[in-house]
């Protein structure tokens, strides 16, 4: 193989997902040159196989459910979503898996693109294997930023890998709806895909090994989502371990063990939704003296390697597009400042530090009911040794919620620092509840005292009035 090259850029970014794009954009805006290397599609997992297609699959059923919850509108709703049209709408949102428009954006932003698979081959040296079988050697004058994302984990269950399981990629790019779908994993992917495929007509069995769904969130969120899934016809099996999987001509056979003993379920497809790991295989990390775990500081610079950054899913800090893009803005700003020889202060809330990763990561889960959460759960706050008190409120008691949906059910909870009287965490569960989270994010990041929040008056009659009720409850 011939290695050609000699090209130099100020910054080389590996991976053109949302995070890599934002690192490159930030450094170019800061006056540096940048090349981004991408081996699949510009836009990454989020645009083509994750956030965008999953939300496109979920939204039609949510729109129908919204109408069904309002007397006077419900009678106009006949039947469920049209699966063929839903899949077509999803395909339109992912531009039929073409990245032409995102390539156009890179061009307009002044970011160079090289298609191929990149790996580190020396200090600030990257080799790109191009699709024509060639290889190019590139040099970064200032920094290399790894933004290679994450990969679905397929657990070591006998027969599972051989049974050709779906990962989230297969689910979000499905061209047909399986009659029977088994889902392993009760986290965000498992719950969202169970919601989507049940609405599209699959008989879904969701197998979770823990005692509840969405185990990283407040327990009441997982309980409400489990109830919602059961109401949608999903067979939710908690505390279940998959012991073996086998595929034959009739589909997939899954052996389970739970509190009631052993049993076998059958499905046309099995979706593995048991978490993700950083995509570092073949990246040449050994060249920088690194193992496969990338430890970074708050500017996302890799510990001990001053020219290397790891940003977004690949650093495993927060596997979310918005948080990865936030890291990208901090890392990009730090790269620009360091290139200019300016001091980069990484104290809390500096423009170069992704401080919010530690205290205020927001997440919206698009199940029915929706979940919006930010900051610490009560359990996390207690584990951190913080002085905790909590307030909760029934969202159905808020006038705006009652008007929004007949018989609205939902709940809100604030985790408070009992000494500083500031918010540490917030969780909202209910129809359209994820929209309530950003107010909590602002309060946490701003460390706004409850006494001052009292003056932030929510409009009547919006669901946001839950904030007033929570503050009233916090006054005892
Ligand atoms: C089903 C699903 C739904 C999700 N929904 C949401 C959501 O609603 N909201 C949310 O915030 N997050 C969501 N996420 C998480 C979100 O998708 C990720 O956090 C986000 O994609 C991370 O962005 P990234 O740029 O770090 O990585 P990616 O989007 O994975 O992009 C990495 C890019 O790097 C490229 N690459 C990798 N290795 C190399 C190499 N060696 N050379 C060249 N290129 C390489 C890849 O091809 C890819 O294009 C979801 C995830 C899943 C699985
Ligand atoms: N709306 C959103 O923001 C959104 C949507 C989807 C995904 N995501 C992101 O993608 C990431 C990955 O999602 P995910 O759901 O795959 O991971 P996850 O970590 O949220 O959940 C994985 C679940 O699988 C379980 N599990 C692990 N190994 C298992 C095994 N061998 N058998 C049975 N269960 C097992 C875990 O206990 C956990 O409950 C998340 O961290 C999330 O941040 C976000």
UniProtKB/TrEMBL annotation:
Alphabetized InterPro entries for the sequence: Class-I_Pyr_Nuc-Dis_Oxidored (IPR050151), FAD/NAD-bd_sf (IPR036188), FAD/NAD-binding_dom (IPR023753), FAD/NAD-linked_Rdtase_dimer_sf (IPR016156), Pyr_nuc-diS_OxRdtase (IPR001100), Pyr_nucl-diS_OxRdtase_dimer (IPR004099)
Cofactor binding remark: Binds 1 FAD per subunit.
UniProt domain FAD/NAD(P)-binding: residue ranges: 9-323
Residue ranges of every copy of the Pyridine nucleotide-disulphide oxidoreductase dimerisation domain listed in the record: 361-467
UniProt key word ATP-binding: no
A GO biological-process term: 2-oxoglutarate metabolic process
GO molecular function, a single term: flavin adenine dinucleotide binding
Keyword presence, Flavoprotein: yes
Superkingdom in the source lineage: Bacteria
Residues involved in NAD(+) binding: 185-192, 275
Disulfide bonds: 46-51
Family annotation (SUPFAM superfamilies): FAD/NAD(P)-binding domain, FAD/NAD-linked reductases, dimerisation (C-terminal) domain
Known cofactor(s): FAD
Binding site for FAD: 55, 148-150, 313
Annotated keywords: FAD, Flavoprotein, NAD, Nucleotide-binding
Pfam families tied to this protein: Pyr_redox_2, Pyr_redox_dim
PANTHER family for the chain: DIHYDROLIPOYL DEHYDROGENASE, MITOCHONDRIAL (PTHR22912:SF151), DISULFIDE OXIDOREDUCTASE (PTHR22912)
Name of this chain's protein: NAD(P)/FAD-dependent oxidoreductase
Annotated source species: Cryptosporangium phraense
Lineage: Bacteria, Bacillati, Actinomycetota, Actinomycetes, Cryptosporangiales
């Amino acid at each position: 193989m011939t290695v050609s090259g000699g090209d130099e850029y100020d910054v080389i970014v590996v991976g053109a997902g949302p995070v890599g794009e934002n690192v490159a954009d930030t450094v170019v805006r800061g006056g540096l040159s940048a090349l981004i290397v991408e081996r699949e599609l510009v836009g990454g997992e989020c645009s083509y196989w994750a956030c965008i297609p999953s939300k496109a699959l979920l939204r039609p059923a949510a729109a129908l459910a919204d109408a069904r919850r309002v007397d006077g509108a419900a009678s106009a709703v006949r039947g469920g979503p049209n699966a063929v049209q839903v899949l077509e709408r999803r395909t339109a949102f992912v531009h039929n898996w073409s990245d032409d428009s995102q390539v156009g954006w890179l061009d307009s932003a002044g970011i160079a693109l090289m298609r191929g698979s990149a790996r580190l081959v020396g200090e600030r040296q990257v080799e790109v294997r191009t699709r024509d079988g060639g290889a190019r050697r590139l040099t970064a004058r200032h920094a290399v930023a790894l933004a290679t994302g994450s990969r679905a984990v397929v657990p070591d269950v006998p027969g599972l890998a051989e049974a050709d399981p779906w990962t989230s990629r297969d689910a979000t790019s499905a061209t047909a709806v399986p009659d029977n779908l088994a889902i392993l994993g009760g986290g965000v992917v498992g719950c969202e895909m169970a919601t989507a495929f049940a609405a599209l007509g699959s008989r879904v069995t969701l197998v979770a090994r823990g005692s509840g769904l969405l185990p990283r969130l407040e327990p009441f969120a997982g309980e409400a989502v489990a109830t919602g899934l059961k109401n949608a016809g999903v067979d939710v099996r908690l505390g279940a371990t998959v012991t073996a999987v086998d595929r034959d001509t009739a589909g997939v056979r899954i052996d389970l063990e739970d509190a009631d003993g052993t049993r076998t379920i059958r499905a046309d497809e099995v979706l593995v939704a048991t978490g993700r790991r950083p995509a570092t295989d073949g990246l040449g990390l050994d060249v920088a003296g690194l193992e496969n775990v990338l430890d970074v500081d708050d500017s996302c610079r890799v510990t001990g390697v001053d020219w290397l950054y790891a940003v977004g899913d690949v650093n495993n800090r927060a596997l979310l597009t918005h948080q990865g893009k936030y890291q990208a803005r901090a890392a990009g700003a730090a790269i620009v400042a360091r290139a200019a020889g300016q001091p980069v202060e990484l104290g809390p809330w500096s423009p170069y530090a992704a401080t919010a990763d530690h205290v205020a990561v927001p997440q919206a889960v698009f199940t029915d009911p929706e979940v919006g959460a930010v900051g610490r759960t009560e359990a996390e706050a207690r584990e951190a040794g913080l002085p905790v008190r909590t307030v909760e409120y029934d969202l159905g008691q808020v006038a705006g919620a009652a008007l929004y949906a007949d018989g609205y059910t939902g709940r809100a909870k604030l985790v408070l620092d009992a000494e500083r009287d500031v918010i540490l965490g917030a969780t909202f569960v209910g129809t359209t509840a994820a929209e309530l989270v950003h107010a909590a994010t602002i309060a946490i990041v701003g460390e706004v005292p409850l006494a001052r929040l009292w003056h932030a008056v929510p409009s009547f009659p919006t669901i946001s009035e839950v904030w007033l009720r929570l503050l009233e409850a916090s006054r005892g």
